[in-house]
Design brief:
By secondary structure, the protein is of the alpha/beta class. The chain has a single domain, classed as Metal-dependent hydrolases (TIM Barrel), CATH 3.20.20. It is built from 16 helices and 8 strands. Strands 1-2-3-4-5-6-7-8 form an 8-stranded parallel beta sheet. Helix 4 packs parallel to helix 6 and helix 7 runs parallel beside helix 8. The protein is globular, with a radius of gyration of 19 Å. Bound molecules: adenine and zinc ion. The site of adenine has 11 residues, from helix 3. The site of adenine (ADE) has 11 residues, from helix 3.
Amino acid sequence: MDHDIDRLPKVELHIHIEGSLEPELMFAMAERNGVALPYASVEDVRRAYEFSDLQSFLDIYYAGARVLLTEQDFYDMTWAYLERCRNDNVRHTEIFFDPQTHTDRGVAFETVIDGISRALSDGERLLGISSRLILCFLRHLSAEAAMATLEQALPFGDRIAAVGLDSSETGHPPAKFRAVFDRARAVGFASVAHAGEEGPPDYIRQALDLLKVRRIDHGVQCVRDPDLVRRLADEQIPLTVCPLSNVKLCVFDRIEDHNLKQLLGAGVCVTVNSDDPAYFGGYIGRNFRATARALDLDRTEIEQLARNAVTASFLDAAGKQRLHAEIDRWRAGPVPEA
Ligand code: ADE
Ligand code: ZN
């Protein structure tokens, strides 16, 4: 039973825009930019997308991002994602970007953000999809490099809603970035962080207590610490969970083993997201459908997941109210044809 998931108004809170780069577009950009790819064909690329853990994915993901050079490349990648959003009835999306992946290759910060934000403006104007941008620091690099990236971002601060933390989790605890997040808060950014994707529950606690984040990205390892699960529920700290990603990166063997339903039942503010849809086999709609089927979610649970994402978003009260009203109409069922 798919509970009319296609029509469900959705909010996405965990999508790395570089992870939406489909192999076809990657090949087109490689060709127009004269960048060599270590693949013979699009099929060859897809065959390479077999991962054993987070790091095995990141190595391939950073290699793929090398084709992105011009403002138009960042625009085209973002626009392609927004077209997927339209197909999945995504009404609002909060997008991560990794500037260091590009600035470290000599691409200007301005090129990256101009291309992404021009597509987001067109998405709002032409598709009616609202959005926010979240700048992620790469945690495998130094805190000093993250601080320099934050300083670089300040002139573009009006286009950035929040900062985040991503890349290789193990061995790079949130504590490493405390001063960076202090500064980000001082200049007015909200914050989020990947924590408890592969890493221990203590990384989730550090993200909350030291980085003072508003949401936890992934967070599924919290179940190893029942007190932490209670705290997440009591404080209604949102988790941006990415079910297909977790299976592709072997966090869970099978989607049937995923703990999303358990967390929802414990009262945690869980949301469903795609993470890196071009690499993990599906955009948000597919994540919803696969999870609903595997975990036998009922219509009330699907509705709760959608409402959680509205509540957990960086939209203002009026924007949230508008989306809750759209979900009310979804619940009431399709309007009969006149
Ligand atoms: N960057 C892109 N996808 C990521 C993930 N799933 N975890 C950490 N960093 C990422
Ligand atoms: Zn992620």
